[in-house]
Design brief:
Shape: elongated
Strand order of the largest sheet: 1-2
Distance between the termini: 13 Å
Strand content: 5-15%
Radius of gyration: 18 Å
Structural class: alpha+beta
Length: about 110
């Protein structure tokens, strides 16, 4: 019987032992970039707006530069954008993820023993 055996990594970036950036925050930023809204991004993830806002606030507070900027509503409504810094962090995280996935896929010694 052929089985699908693989190694998977979940990885995070820590700041002073605080889990700062990982798969969930990447997904949140991707949805914000797509929808232009923290509320819509939260809904897509099945998360409360409050939790999403707290995640955005933590990223903006602890990062060297903000990842997300918001504009208050007005005649044309408000909006939310992922900054260039946020976009660069997303891309760098995805590159790291691809590298780790390649390492895991290449690990035939362990997989052959299972």
């Amino acid at each position: 019987m052929k089985r699908d055996i693989k190694i998977r990594f979940r990885h995070w970036v820590y700041i002073d032992d605080m889990k700062f950036f990982g798969p969930g925050r990447l997904e949140l930023l991707e949805h914000i970039a797509e929808t232009g809204s923290i509320a819509k991004a939260a809904k897509l993830m099945g998360m409360s707006y409050k939790k999403a806002w707290l995640m955005v606030d933590e990223m903006n507070t602890y990062a060297q530069n903000p990842y997300v900027i918001t504009q208050k509503g007005g005649q044309h409504g408000g909006g939310t954008q992922v900054t260039e810094t946020g976009k660069k962090v997303m891309e760098a995280y995805k590159k790291l993820d691809a590298k780790l996935s390649a390492v895991a896929e290449a690990e035939r010694d362990l997989l052959s023993l299972i």
